[in-house]
Automatic annotation (TrEMBL):
Keywords: Decarboxylase, Lyase, Pyruvate, Signal, Zymogen
Protein name: Phosphatidylserine decarboxylase
Pfam families attached to this UniProt entry: PS_Dcarbxylase (PF02666)
Signal peptide coordinates: 1-26
Keyword Signal: yes
Species of provenance: Pseudodesulfovibrio nedwellii
C-alpha cells in the first residue's frame, strides 16, 4: 500500500537513527486506575514506551514536532504542543470512559477523537507512532476495550439526555422501552446503532422504480471528492491535486480497474444521526470484503474536518483512507456500470459491520436501492461512493423539492 509503504520507509530510516541514539528509555512511573476500561491497552502503551527504543523515539519526536493548528480551528490551539508522553497516559485514561453529550445542534462526540487526530497533524512521527507496530496493535486494543465499555450498561449514563433532544427525533426510532427516560437501551452502542420503526416512512426512496436515481446511502454530510482516481502504478503528483489510489482503497479487488478515471462522493456521518448505510443503487452485489487497517493518523485533520463543519469539502485529503479500516461492496447496476460503496472506519471506528447475507454469499446478491448493507458503532465514520468513468460527473449534489438541505444552529435542546 502506497501510504503504508511511505510510513514503513520512514520508520525503517528512523530505526537506524534510533539504533545509534543514546536516548534513555527509563520507565515512566505512570499509574493506570484499576477501574479504567482500557487498563490493558494503556498499560501496554507504557510498557512499549519503556522497553521499545524505536517506539519511544517516535513518541518523543512526535511531541517535539507538534505543529500549530490553523488559527481558530480549536480553542487553545494544538493541545499537544508543550506536552510529553506523561500527558498521553491521563488523556487515554480519560478517553476510555468518556461519554458524549449533545447540546442543541452540536455535540462533543468527537472531543477526544479530534485531539488524537491532531496528534498526527503534519507530523510524520505522530502518524508513524500509531500506524506501525507496536503502536498500531496497542491502539487497536484500546479501541476494542473502549468498544466493550460502550457496549456495557455503564455507558448509558447520558443516553436520556440525548433522547431528550428533539433533534434526535426519538419518536421515529425503535426504543426497547419507550416509557424509560433512556429508552431502555442496554448500552451507548445500542442507542448509537438504533433503527427506524419504519424506514420507508421516515426515509422514503426517491422514485424507487427509476434506475437512474442515485440515493444517499445514509444520513450524512455529502461532498464530491475532488480528486483524480488513479491506478496503483501512477507516480506523478500534480501540485494541488490529491490522488485517490483505487487499487489500494478496494484492497486489490478484481474490479478496481473499472473505476480508474471515474468519480467519487464522500458521505460523512455525524455522531447524532442514523448509523446504518444502505444501497445507493439497485443491481447485483458482485463482491464484498472487510479490510483491516489503521484507526488513526490523518495527516491534515483540520483540512478534512474544517471549523465550518463542511467535512470532506473541496481541498480535503482522502489519500489516508487507502490504509484505514474499511470494507467495500461492488454493485453491478447493469447499464450504468459498476458502483463501489466503501464504508470507512474513521478515527477509532473498528466496527465496520456488514449484513451476514453479503459476507456469506456464494455468488451475486440482488439488491434494491435502499436495501440495508450494514452499520457502524460509535466513532467517526464515512461512506465513499465510486463510479465508473462517464457515469456520474456532477460536481455538486442535486436535491429535490422538499428534501432537507440542513438544520438551524442552536445551543438549546428545546
Amino acid at each position: 500500500m502506497k501510504n503504508s509503504f511511505r510510513i514503513l520507509s520512514f520508520v525503517f530510516a528512523f530505526t537506524i537513527f534510533a539504533s545509534i541514539s543514546t536516548i534513555s528509555i527509563a520507565a515512566q512511573k505512570v499509574a493506570v486506575p484499576d477501574d479504567c476500561p482500557c487498563k490493558r491497552s494503556i498499560t501496554n502503551l507504557i510498557e512499549a514506551y519503556s522497553n521499545d527504543k524505536v517506539f519511544k523515539v517516535l513518541i518523543d519526536e512526535a511531541f517535539k514536532n507538534m505543529q500549530p493548528l490553523p488559527e481558530g480551528y480549536m480553542k487553545g490551539g494544538n493541545p499537544w504542543i508543550g506536552k510529553s508522553f506523561a500527558d498521553l497516559i491521563p488523556f487515554f485514561v480519560e478517553w476510555s470512559s468518556f461519554l458524549p453529550e449533545a447540546k442543541g445542534s452540536s455535540d462533543n462526540g468527537l472531543k477526544y477523537i479530534e485531539q488524537m487526530d491532531v496528534f498526527a497533524y503534519k507530523n510524520p512521527f505522530g502518524r508513524a507512532a500509531f500506524q506501525t507496530s507496536p503502536g498500531v496493535e496497542i491502539f487497536d486494543l484500546f479501541v476494542r476495550e473502549r468498544g466493550e465499555f460502550l457496549s456495557s450498561k455503564a455507558s448509558t449514563k447520558n443516553v436520556a439526555k440525548w433522547l431528550a433532544d428533539i433533534r434526535i427525533e426519538k419518536e421515529e426510532y425503535v426504543l426497547p422501552d419507550p416509557t424509560a427516560a433512556d429508552g431502555g437501551f442496554k448500552s451507548y452502542n445500542e442507542f448509537f446503532s438504533r433503527k427506524f420503526k419504519d424506514i420507508n416512512k421516515v426515509r422514503p426512496q426517491t422514485m424507487p422504480d427509476r434506475d437512474y436515481v442515485i440515493s444517499s446511502p445514509t444520513d450524512a454530510i455529502m461532498n464530491p471528492i475532488p480528486v483524480t482516481i488513479v491506478d496503483g502504478s501512477t507516480q506523478l503528483r500534480t501540485k494541488g491535486t490529491q490522488e485517490l489510489n483505487i487499487k489500494e482503497l478496494l484492497a486489490g479487488s478484481r474490479y478496481w480497474n473499472k473505476f480508474v478515471g471515474g468519480t467519487a462522493l464522500s458521505c460523512i456521518l455525524m455522531p447524532n444521526t442514523y448509523h446504518y448505510y444502505h444501497a445507493p443503487v439497485g443491481g447485483k452485489v458482485l463482491e464484498t470484503r472487510l479490510v483491516d487497517g489503521a484507526l488513526i493518523g490523518m495527516e491534515d485533520f483540520p483540512k478534512f474536518a474544517p471549523a465550518d463543519g463542511n467535512v470532506g469539502a473541496h481541498g480535503a485529503s482522502f489519500g489516508a483512507f487507502e490504509s484505514y479500516a474499511r470494507g467495500y461492496f461492488v454493485i453491478d447496476t447493469g447499464k450504468y456500470g459498476l458502483v463501489g460503496v466503501v464504508p470507512v472506519g474513521l478515527s477509532t471506528v473498528g466496527s465496520v459491520v456488514f449484513k451476514d447475507k453479503f459476507l456469506k454469499a456464494k455468488g451475486p446478491v440482488t439488491i434494491k436501492r435502499g436495501d440495508e448493507l450494514g452499520h457502524f458503532l460509535y466513532g467517526g465514520s464515512m461512506v465513499i461512493l465510486i463510479f465508473e468513468p462517464g457515469k456520474y460527473s456532477s460536481g455538486a449534489i442535486k436535491v429535490r423539492l422538499g428534501n432537507q438541505i440542513g438544520t438551524f444552529d442552536t445551543d438549546s435542546n428545546d
